[in-house]
Every structure is written in C-alpha cells, then in structure tokens.
Amino acid sequence: MQPVPDLTARQLHAVLAVAEYNSFIAAAAFLKTSQPSLTRTIMRVEDVLGVRLFDRSTRRVAITAAGKEFVAVAERMLNDLRISVRSMREVGEEQRGQIIISQYHVRRKRIDSCSRRQISSLTARH
Question: Which domain holds residue 15?
C-alpha cells in the first residue's frame, strides 16, 4: 500500500487558484498571500506528487497535462471535504440523524395521543 500524500486544503486551493488565473501574482492576490509564498507552496505540492503541475517562465504560466488532471482531483477532494464537514455539523447540531420511536401498549389512548404530539413536534423541528 502506497502512503497517502500529505497535502493540505490550503495547498489544494493554491493549485486551483494558479490554474484558474494562469498567474502566480493574480493567484497570490486572490489568496491574500505573497507571490514567493505561493510559489513555495506550489513547489511543495509538486515535490510531494513528484510531477510538475505548471510550466513557468518569467512571462507566463501554463498548466501541464498532470496539472490538469490534478486540478480535477483537487476540486473533487475539496468538494468532498466541504460535504463531509457540513454533514458532521448537521449530526452534531442534531439536524440530521436517526430517531427510533417505540410504543408501549398499556393505556393505548393516552400513549397514542402523547406520541402523536411528540412525533408532530419532532417532525416540525426537523
């Protein structure tokens, strides 16, 4: 089993920004960081992956074939992370989860009316 690359959401956002803007300066401005810091971040990602994501010169930035493929993967990873965080928050805030309702049939009339009120209250809130 191969080890999982150690990449952060911040690094994935950096790759996406450079790919979108085709410019380290514009991407750095968008990310509110410096161009040298962004360049170092991209170089670290390329080092971890073992491929160049961008061809750079003093005048232009071009995404490589590996870069195009990684951008699609990075977008999916960040989207999955957003969905997972939202789901965990919903579970934590009890907006989503499992409710099990059971009933004991001793005084059926009283329990049934009580249960209906509680069920109506629960479904109204959730």
Answer: 9-92
